[in-house]
Design brief:
The radius of gyration is 37 Å and the shape is elongated. The protein contains 14 helices and eight strands. It is an alpha+beta fold and 386 residues long.
Length: 386
């Protein structure tokens, strides 16, 4: 605190003072704590103010009457202090009490000083830039990236959605082809699924990295715009997207199933190998298929959430997540529909059985896992920050 004092008359003085004039959050009261090595405590000062003090002095005699200064036997001090924080029009609170103060490389490090803490570590400019770039991909940023992409999907023309979904249904059939080829070439050993499951990822790599419209991806991306701005209009856009994409995904897999059965694609041996893989769907009843669809929906919904932060590792993200869908025997509605349609085209089951007992329960499970679990949890963690 600094002050300037002067005397107007013999018995009247004034003083102008200022505290924390430059808003540096001064902490002038410094104390070293006993039994705590390197622990120093500073108490905060008042917020910055400028003030004026007026002081008058009345000289009293023993009988209480006012006398000349030479006859003074007592004094009465009356002080008026008028303080106006002219530098801060808005209310300003005093700086918080921050106890721990340490010294690193000759610098004082306060617990609440973020910029100083960032400077604690000896990093080069390139290393600091890398840290800043990595820190920018937080949950809020990921949410906005996925939400904006979902909003674009919801706004796409119906014709574009139809052709993209149809292409995705055709391309996803490569998963059945890849898995069956590996299984047919490997010996019947307990470790065979560990390698054959890699073939299941083939179709997903083509579809996801090719930005084709896959239904199970939209259980996250297209849901976030609706969760962020809930309205009947947005809900209608979501149902329109889901209906078109799912329908033409299934039409695409149906066309490939007919082509495989007619041996227009591949050979008879490969057709037999694909039928062997497809028959595994018949091992589960309706409820079991739905339960197996939940983890598949969750894992596929995680793909669009992770890709913005993958930084050139998108292939490995898709490969890893879809590999475990195959390894766990989980039910994916679109990839599994190709297997169900193939069984129906071969005459082993009816098309109604394929739809109602194999595709529909997988659909419900994927929606529960993708929308009910992943999408809503991903949105809930940043809801208060939006």
């Amino acid at each position: 605190m600094s002050a300037l004092a002067s005397s107007l008359t013999k018995n009247l003085e004034f003083a102008v003072f200022a505290r924390d004039l430059f808003e540096k959050n001064y902490r002038p009261n410094l104390a070293v704590q006993a039994d705590n090595l390197s622990l120093i405590v500073r108490m905060p000062s008042d917020p910055h103010v400028i003030g004026l003090t007026l002081r008058s002095r009345l000289q009293l005699g023993k009988d209480g009457t006012c006398r000349q200064p030479s006859e003074m036997t007592g004094s009465l001090i009356e002080t008026w202090q008028f303080v106006n924080d002219i530098f801060a029009p808005k209310p300003r609170t005093a700086p918080p009490i921050v106890a721990p103060v340490a010294t690193l490389h000759g610098r004082e490090i306060l617990a609440d000083d973020l910029e100083v803490r960032k400077g604690d570590i000896d990093l080069s400019d390139d290393e600091r830039a890398a840290v800043s770039e990595s820190a920018s991909t937080n949950a809020k940023v990921l949410h906005e990236v996925v939400r904006s992409r979902g909003d674009e999907e919801l706004s796409r023309p119906a014709f574009s959605l139809i052709w993209s979904a149809l292409a995705a249904g055709v391309a996803i059939s490569a998963s059945l082809l890849g898995q069956s080829l590996l299984e047919s070439m490997l010996p019947d050993a307990p470790w065979r699924p560990l390698i054959a499951s890699l073939g299941y990822s083939l179709g997903f790599v083509i579809v996801i990295l090719g930005r084709l419209q896959l239904f199970t991806e939209s259980t996250l991306s297209a849901v976030l715009p609706v969760a962020t701005h809930p309205s009947w209009g947005n809900l209608g856009r979501l149902l329109r997207l889901w209906g078109l994409v799912l329908a033409f995904n299934l039409i695409g897999t149906l066309l490939i199933a007919f082509a495989i059965e007619a041996v227009l694609i591949g050979s008879s041996e490969q057709r037999a190998a694909m039928l062997d893989v497809s028959r595994k769907l018949l091992e589960h009843d309706w409820l079991a298929t739905m339960k197996l669809g939940i983890p598949a929906g969750f894992l596929i919904a995680a793909v669009p959430w992770l890709l913005p932060a993958a930084r050139g590792q998108s292939f490995w993200v898709v490969l890893t997540l879809t590999y475990f869908i195959a390894l766990g025997g989980f039910a994916h509605v679109v990839a599994g529909s190709g297997e169900a349609w193939l069984l129906a085209a071969a005459g082993e089951i009816s098309f109604s059985f394929a739809m109602l007992n194999l595709i529909v329960p997988a659909l419900f499970g994927n929606i529960i896992g993708g929308t009910g679990l992943f999408a809503l949890l991903a949105h809930a963690q940043v809801r208060q920050e939006l």
